[in-house]
Specification:
Layout lengths: L1 H24 L29 H9 L5
Keywords: Lipoprotein, Signal
Protein name: YnbE family lipoprotein
Length: about 70
């Protein structure tokens, strides 16, 4: 029974040493940046509106410009 107990003790010790070695190696640091984050977006919007009117309506608008 002693060899089984020693084997378990050895495995447990090795496991504990491995875990402690891994926890000592990892370093995680979270910090906010010194400067604000800038997002530059260049947006170009072009609209083209074409209105077609009849000749009669066009003449009416020219003669009676007070309508609009």
């Amino acid at each position: 029974m002693k060899p089984l107990f020693l084997k378990k003790l050895f495995l447990l010790t090795a496991l504990m040493m491995g875990i402690s070695a891994l926890t000592g190696c990892i370093r995680l640091e979270v910090a906010t940046p010194d400067k604000p984050i800038n997002i530059n977006m260049n947006v170009k919007i072009e609209h083209e509106i074409n209105v077609k009117i009849d000749r009669q309506v066009e003449d009416l608008l020219k003669n009676n410009s007070a309508i609009f």
